[in-house]
Amino acid sequence: MEDLGQSYLSRLSQTELFQEIATICAAVNTVVSTNELLAVSLENVLKLFKAQRGSIFILNDKEDELELRVAVGLGGDEQKAIVKRMGEGFVGQVAQTKEPIIVDDIAQDKRFKDHKSKNGYKTSSFICAPLLLKDQLIGVINITDKDSGHKFLTNELQLLDFIASQIALNYRRIILYRKFQTVVKETQSLKDKLGETGEETAHLKKQIMIQEKLATIGKLAGGIAHEFNNPLDGVMRYTNLCLDQIQDDEVVRGYLMEIKQGLNRMAIIVRNLLRCSRDDVLSQEKVNLKSALGRALYNLQTDFSRKDIEIVDEVPDELPDLIDLGLERILVNLIRNAIDAIEEKGKISITAQFENDVLMFNVADNGIGIAQTKINEIFEPFYTTKDIDKGCGLGLTIIGEIVKSYDGKIDVESQPDCGTTFTVRIPLEREDNE
Question: Span 246-268, mean pLDDT?
Fold first, then answer.
């Protein structure tokens, strides 16, 4: 048993004491979590002070309460009281003042006369120190119940205060290491997205350029559509007035009906341009694939008749209706591309089916086909193999945007001199309508 005036620590040589402290400070090198660090540190501190009971509280994120994280030797009732408010009890007071305290006799100390568990200690003396890092409170460590039964001495409090600062430093090191690991993972994830090879990086840069082009097209489309809207409305209004005035002349009336039908198609194109610019609400009108195909073929009949192209329409009549977001526009562009791909005398087949709430249709031709190296480029804005007077390279880009507005997908299969097949899949229910 130690003498009243001499503690166990006083009998250690300076080298032995430094070794004991070094063991506590090096605990951070053998643990992987903050809880494990606190548990190992508390165990080593109790061993150093030859004490049987201790606890470590950590300040919560709101910095208004201390939560018990690890404890040794506490009774069941004390284990339940795992939260201390700032200023509550000796733990709360140490946290509030950020100063260590030593108690010779808890039963006689007026500072803690209302302390509920003071009769639960095996010994009446304890020491308590804040876990501080540059005046920032991390938590509080409390040590009591020395094996000898004697009170703690001032030099022991000073040592605990020093060790508490090292525990706080180790605690912060683990927190920062965890954050570092998170940053490393996020950086690795970002690298994966950007692509670790030059080819993947180039592909992503290309996608960024495409999105910038699409944004430019959207703004341009919105401006054009707004400029067209007013004169288009005027022409439509006067056409309807002419139809009202001409009742008997069937020839002129037929011409006016053709004009009106063309104006309606132009109005649909304007609405689609506005949707591309994200400047218009979505249509709630319904459209049927069969009827949309009929109108598309009617508009293009001069083109495929001129080349002696056979049209094979295998689209059934009983397909469900879809919201009109530009279905006819998809068909017109795909069929026009198929016509352009056929130099003279060929065949274009349009087939469709409805399965698992998905409408799927194909537009296939036996034209010149597309090289495999070019397939990934055909949906890019302004990409075209046509002469400048035949196209500006926006047809498939617009198709892609319309299909995307349907929450659908478009695929292409092609081989040079063997033709091309475009497959469009459109779900009956869009995600924002579910």
Answer: 80
Cα distance between residue 109 and residue 119, in whole Å? 13
3-state secondary structure of 272: helix
Least confident piece of the model among 11-20, 287-296, 332-341: 11-20
Q: Please state, in angstroms and rounded to a whole number, the distance separating the CA atoms of residues 143 and 56.
A: 9
Q: Are residues 145 and 231 in the same domain?
A: no
Whether 221 maps to a domain, the answer reads yes
Grouping H, G, I as helix, E, B as strand and the rest as coil, residue 116 is: coil
337 and 410 in a single domain? The answer is yes
Number of domains comprising the chain: 2
Residues 100 and 227 in one domain: no
Residues 183 and 209 occupy one common structural domain: no
Q: Which helix (H) or strand (E) holds 172?
A: helix 154-194
> What's the rounded Cα separation, in Å, for the pair 58 and 393?
64
Mean pLDDT taken over the chain: 79
DSSP structure string for 327-371: HHHHHHHHHHHHHHH-SSS-EEEEEEEEETTEEEEEEEE-SS---
Q: In what order do the strands lie in the sheet with 65-72?
A: 83-85, 65-72, 51-59, 136-146, 126-133, 101-103
Question: Degrees (nearest 5) of the Cα angle 399, 401, 403?
Answer: 70
Could you tell me the residue range of the domain that residue 313 belongs to? 202-433
User: Is residue 405 within 8 Å of residue 275, measured between CB atoms?
Assistant: yes
Cα separation, 290 vs 288, whole angstroms: 6
